[in-house]
Amino acid sequence: MCGSGITSKRLRISCLITTMKAAPLASPLVPRLRMARNLLETDVSMRILALLLALFAGVPQRAPELQLNLVAAPPPPERPGNVKGIGSGCAVGTSHRPPATFKVTLADTDRLAYQVGDTMSYNVILENTSTAPIVLGISRDPEVAPKTMSPCRVVPPGVRFGVALVAMTKTGPGASISSVGFYGSLDVPGTTLALEPGERVRVQVPAQIWPGPGMTPVLTTDPQPVRMKAFVMIEHDSMLAEYSENTLEIELNHRFQRQ
Question: What is the C-alpha radius of gyration for the chain, rounded to an integer number of angstroms?
């Protein structure tokens, strides 16, 4: 049927198709096409891998978060006459705000509702955003970091680390809800923590709720919502102070009706 004597055009085409189906492809184009396809697939895979590596390489790796539990800090030693540190009652102010060297986040509180006089604990996260270490006092003993009265400053090499919860008003920070201080000295081992540049530390802080005078007329026996920020102050060679960037809300009330 498909011999050399075929004269019909349609029959010749049919025979050609039948022959192509029956015979294996021996053209050198086929392996080249397969090679090109393999190269293309490999190139696409390499491009995807390079893109993923570039994305992950561009994400800065955060340093591990340190943990500091000041709730477990031992109480200060008892001394005759309950002598306080030199200048423990003086306060220092500043007429200008220095550049921020650390960032504060008020992470959480142990409960959502409190009464005046309650003990509590909460967590603040400090991040050193400067290029130098920041030293925190972690002892409850004020004698390791005494202060002079005039000028009002910590005696070197002492350091004081204070944390407060401050009620927020429509115009900004208001009365203090609680405050606590910790002390340290570079000469007394185990009383300080150095936070290196870029490091973060989660600090568990103990406190007792004693609102300042500005909140006394506001509070009743009915729970009231109070928005608050954390305020951190570090006194060493200089004074550093910063509010938390965020706020948290708790409910607060007096235990008994005020007379």
Answer: 36
Query: CA 19: distance to chain centroid?
Result: 74
pLDDT in tens, 104-137: 999 999 999 999 999 999 999 999 999 999 999 9
Range of the domain at 121: 65-253
51 and 69 part of one domain: no
Within-domain flag for 227 = yes
**Any domain includes 1:** no
**Residue 3 is assigned to a structural domain of this protein:** no
pTM of the model: 0.72
Residue in 112, 120, 125, 101 with CA at minimum distance from that of residue 202? 125
Q: Closest Cα partner for 232 from 222, 240, 223, 224?
A: 240
Secondary structure class of 189 (helix, strand, coil):
coil
